Amino acid sequence: MNSLQKTFLTLLMVCAKLSFAQEIKIIDKPIIFDSVRTKLSLQYLKERHGLTKKEPKIEPIMIVLHWTAAKTMLSTFNAFNHATLNGDRRAIAGASNLNVSSQFLIDRDGTIYRLMPEDKFARHVIGLNYCAIGIENVGSSNFPLTVAQLKANEQLVRYLSKKYKIAYLIGHYEYTLFKNTTLWKETNPNYQTGKNDPGKDFMQKIRIHVADLGLKGAPTPK
User: Fold this and answer.
1) Is the pTM of this model over 0.85?
2) Which of 3, 47, 129, 153 has the fewest Cβ atoms surrounding its Cβ within 10 A?
3) pLDDT tens-digit map of 88-140
4) What DSSP string describes 95-109?
5) Residues near 35 by Cβ (< 8 Å), separated by ≥ 6?
6) Is the distance from CB of 60 to CB of 103 less than 8 angstroms?
7) CATH classification of 26-213 is 3.40.50.150, yes or no?
């Protein structure tokens, strides 16, 4: 293959990827973001991240992938669809009564749901909520994520990377590796929880699929 053919092939691949990103289908299914959630979000930003804001907004530079540990989209949606935590989240309730949520939720068949505007604040990753878009995937360690979800995550990562200045793509289990970086903003140095989502195998696959984007992962442990 000569240099001209290589250039032409590269252009074809770039065009294919751009077309792939444009074909994404997102269904808007907003969770309740009322005055209570707004107030608690602003309070979280100030008390946990040390940021005083007039609106619960973020400037996304990171995408964090999760799994729900639930078997259905609807059960996760219902869990997110109120402003305050329910009674079984004692491990994180001490930090704030703000309910957990994410900007996106991907069902087992790859259907992508947008639960709130992409630049709206969501509580989904300690220390990094203020700059991170969360993508929840219906599944767990006992209910592995699907090929359809892998494809949907790739589409969504490409879409978000084109729209925002995304520099990082990480799995939820990697979040504590940012603790000694300037990105980490958590006022309590002892506040963290153990995570394993969305699984190392899934993260390895998604990183291969979006390698051309040049997104950074978590810092290497010291």
Assistant:
1) yes
2) 3
3) 677 798 999 999 999 999 999 999 999 999 999 999 999 999 999 999 999 99
4) T-SBPP--SEEE-TT
5) none
6) no
7) no
